[in-house]
Request: fold
Amino acid sequence: MGRRLAVPRVWHRSVRQRYRSRRGGPRWLCGWHCSLCWPGLWCSRSRPRFAGDRAPFTCYYQPKINASDESVHSVEALVRWRHPTRGLLLPDQFLPAAEDAGLMRPLAARVLDMALTQLRSWRDDGVMVTVAVNLSTTNLLDLGLVASIARLLRTHDLPPESLILEITESTLTTDSQRARNTVAALRRLGTRLSLDDYGTGWSSLARLQDLSVDELKLDQVFVARLALDPRSIAIVRSTVALAHSLGADLVAEGVEDDATLRALRQYGCNITQGNVHSPPLPAAEIQRWLAARCPTPR
Ligand code: C2E
Ligand code: MG
Ligand code: MG
Reply:
């Protein structure tokens, strides 16, 4: 067990940078399980924990629901970190540090593998859903991403269209040709594409000019204010029209109550996601939720 040490963030960062640049990686930090550190993640010695039963990451799953018949459109995988002392950590609490430590690639590989394993198991049980996985900018810059997704789909014997990849506008606002090439290659592979947190970026419309997507996910800031604010109604209505005229679905995320759900459906939104249907749930619980919701073929 490593020693615990509380250190100021600035000191921590400088040490981290110093030791990250050493040959062989930040092995020195293995024994220092300080409160700001990444016990068991940072050091090369414990990197294998990204895979296998003892990996600290897990996925919670949240359904997206079709307005037409209340059926399950797809299920989004949302990563969590089972931290040994701090409990279950949300993505905002550790993704920036993972990004900083250059760990987004193994993390994405782990999440994709967990989500596709789960999808295979649902499909084997006759639940014909689709799974959605979030990708970061770093993931889109990874030249090996498309090949590793293709390999995972083959391993789990799943068609490419059973996977939705959620990217945010900001992932494409960087003028990176490499990120665009990755997106184009993912399209050619046949996976589906979703533009997450739509409306929060600076150049939403410019992105749509050269990117064909299967769904626009309207950010929850617009959804949350729907009942109170006529301007949000105008935004929802026009985004629904825009999505449909582009041949895409409009998904409203963060739907919390029935009044908002009714309003969204009245304005033509065809897919909704949020606590009003189900919060993100661990695999075993979403399995029960799906079993009760999705009739399995006889
Ligand atoms: P996101 O993809 O836009 O996911 C929606 C977030 O809203 C999730 O937060 C979800 O738990 C939360 N949410 C769902 N329903 C409701 C609701 O009714 N009300 C409210 N207030 N919130 C709701 P979460 O799980 O903390 O994820 C935050 C963000 O972290 C995600 O936003 C996504 O951008 C990122 N993320 C999650 N998993 C991954 C991953 O595996 N890889 C990457 N790169 N990013 C991920
Ligand atoms: Mg998402
Ligand atoms: Mg979102």
